[in-house]
Amino acid sequence: MAAGDGAYTPGDGPMAGVLAGMPEVIERLLAQHVPDRLGRCTACRNAGSGVVWPCTLHQIATRAQVLRTQNGQRPRSGAQPL
């Protein structure tokens, strides 16, 4: 569950736990899944329409990065700060 609002977010699922052990993948996802000027994910384009950012993959990667930090592992040097 997301903190405070009681709503489920994709980052709450088990995939974030799996990704927490893959810092290179986290870094790539966070670097590629960024908002464009319209607030849509630049990597999740779909036949002219886009996915509202933060997209599911960005949310999962962000949660994985939090899990790494909570487990005492530092984000990689190029990773986005939380």
Give the CA-CA distance, first to last residue: 18 Å
Helix/strand/pairing class, anyone? Answer: alpha+beta
The average pLDDT is: 80
Query: How many DSSP helices?
Result: 3
Gyration radius, rounded: 13 Å
Low-confidence stretches: none
Helix-strand topology string: HHEEH
Topology, number of strands: 2
Please state roughly what percent of the residues sit in beta strands, choosing from under 5%, 5-15%, 15-25%, 25-35%, 35-45% or over 45%.
Answer: 5-15%
The largest sheet has its strands arranged as 1-2
> What fraction, in percent, of the residue positions are helical?
25-40%
Largest sheet: 2 strands, antiparallel
What is the general shape? elongated
What would you say this structure looks like, in words?
The chain has helices at 14-19, 23-32, 56-70; strands spanning 40-46, 49-52. It is elongated and about 40 Å long. The two termini are 18 Å apart. 38% of the residues lie in helices and 13% in strands. The protein has 82 residues and is an alpha+beta fold. Strands 1-2 form a two-stranded antiparallel ribbon.
